[in-house]
Amino acid sequence: MSNCVICGERPSAKQKINCKCCSKAFHANCINVKDGHIPSYNSGEYIWLCDNCNSKVISNKNQQSPVADSVTMSEIRDTLRALLDKQNHFIEKLEKHSTEIEQLKSKDIEHGAGIRENRENIEKLELQMKSVLEENNSLRQKCNKIQQSSMNNCLVVTGVPLPKNENVFLTTQLKGSALGMRLTDSHVVNSYRFLGAGRKNSNLIICFTKQSYRDEFLKCRKIKRDFSTKDLDKSLSNLVSEPNVIYVNEYLTAYNKNLFLKAKEYKNDNNIKYLWIKNGSIYMRKLEGTRAVLITSENDFQNIQ
Description:
The protein is about 50% helix and about 15% strand. It contains seven helices and nine strands; from the N terminus they run E-E-H-H-H-E-H-E-E-H-H-E-H-E-E-E. The strands form three sheets. It has a four-stranded antiparallel beta sheet with strand order 4-5-3-6, with helices on one face. It has four domains: about 15-65, no CATH class; about 90-150; about 155-250, Alpha-Beta Plaits; about 250-305. Pfam families: Baculo_FP_2nd (PF25298).
């Protein structure tokens, strides 16, 4: 391997360019050729002559030297042949890519049709899902209505102390007496405690034989607005150190109880004045004189005007 004519150092194969005429080696950097162009010169795509050979070619041209003309034309033919080969290779690649593009277009059309079909199927499924949800919501409300109807003779009492070894019916009678209503077996079909974890004063559930008895009991509680544990028999009132208010409310299904809590939150956030429960149904009214709206789901909130 020859040393570079200009710097005297030996260039590597990747750094070297040879003069097309004298074949002497040169560093690409020494003759101001960019690294990316080196392969083109070494493959014959580009032709480079050193200053000495280039001067000879120019001199021979000026002297009309047949030899010089012959060498130059040969180089041009070689260059043109290389260019034609590259052009043919490029055309082959272009034709191949054109075929691939057409195939991709065809696949894209197929995929587009598949996407449209899938979108249509999704829209159908969404409509079916909407219908199913509406039907499910309707069935849930019907079931809730039936369940609530079976509970309409019941009341839930909060705040009554829980004595040890309690006779629940006796506790119910004592509470009724404190409200001014004497309760007997003909009034109450069942009464029991709803025991919550860790709760000392668990809810007392009273199931009346008739709704009219339930309504009378509610009326007695509304009359006695300040009703608390201090109004109970001493066997109950002495179980608490400080008197607490006793509340009486309609017994709601789990669905209605949750809906009532959400209605309460909506009422507070939207300046709704009235919210109440009647016979297991929830009602809301924005202002005095406006229409009362039956609340069966959260969707009914938007009907309040």
